Fold these 2 entries.
Entry 1:
Amino acid sequence: DTGVSQNPRHKITKRGQNVTFRCDPISEHNRLYWYRQTLGQGPEFLTYFQNEAQLEKSRLLSDRFSAERPKGSFSTLEIQRTEQGDSAMYLCASSLGPSGGSRETQYFGPGTRLLVL
Amino acid sequence: AQKVTQAQTEISVVEKEDVTLDCVYETRDTTYYLFWYKQPPSGELVFLIRRNSFDEQNEISGRYSWNFQKSTSSFNFTITASQVVDSAVYFCALSEQSGGSYIPTFGRGTSLIVHP
């Protein structure tokens, strides 16, 4: 049983470039979540999917951020026209969901660390 | 107002000491979940425990124990006989229902440093 995987683990880009991150959840999990974590802070929720449906996206940081999960398996998070303030760790998590209880426990991937120069 | 407060930014102890990490939360929901996660230097958050709002039983798992008190809205975490490998940032999180799912709000974390 493999855990949540994320690629790449590190990304350095120049301001104004677009970047895309990939997350592969635990195989039987139908919920997938994206978070951003900046230095000295806890993870900040961005968006989540149940299967291929994006059920909450109001907390995406700006319209430069978008996420997809086209076949209900892996997901991508794209940041367009990156800014230096986008530098952070981007975390993905998955859970069995819904119905509460243990199905709500989220398991996290190792994250993608983004540095915008 | 912060929904999850971890007032201790950093705690430094010597190996074998006991240490308690505090977590105070704020919610109006009657059904919610509380979590603790560990984030070692490698960066990956490791799930430690989940508690639902209806279960106030304290829990012990090896050297770890958790004290959930609804009366004070606290969910504190104690490590007994700390070890160097316990050094990490520990996050407390509160999950409240939002649009059909429970979305966690994390505290700012407590950095625990265990010296040999």
Entry 2:
Amino acid sequence: EAQVTQNPRYLITVTGKKLTVTCSQNMNHEYMSWYRQDPGLGLRQIYYSMNVEVTDKGDVPEGYKVSRKEKRNFPLILESPSPNQTSLYFCASSPLAGATDTQYFGPGTRLTVL
Amino acid sequence: DQQVKQNSPSLSVQEGRISILNCDYTNSMFDYFLWYKKYPAEGPTFLISISSIKDKNEDGRFTVFLNKSAKHLSLHIVPSQPGDSAVYFCAASAGTDKLIFGTGTRLQVFP
């Protein structure tokens, strides 16, 4: 089954404790991205990757890191989480960059930073 | 600055009636528009799209209308069904640039 998986689905952590949210897709997609969803702000892009070893900042990259060592995986790293990073996070992938290829979203990771 | 706006955070419609969800944009370079649907505890899923060379696209009960002069996009669902209850996001892009999403409209379809 074609899908985007994220782990963990739920996470409660404390300020400053490094964490990684994993994302994996099995569709051989080149383009992957991370979004956060906050009330009244919709989905905002954090980082994206056009292909292996090619990553770039989205609209809200502060406090986040990513890596793309393999085509299928695109982990999101929070080196020192803060309460303002409490949010719902979505990973997405598409065959190519741009809207002409619709994005496939993972199920989301709800992160709470205390 | 919000380039894609959904001014109605919520909408309630009776089953069988038409649901109309609206979206406005400010960037005249946008040339592709999409609607995504999101159920609780799931990721958004693609619903329907439209290119700027068209003014209407239809897929079953779902129709998207594009008014370029007004920079306005709307999604019509006819007839509305309880299973349509979800959050709907409109999104837009210019060329191969990233998607810009709106803030979402929560649709509730009641019996």
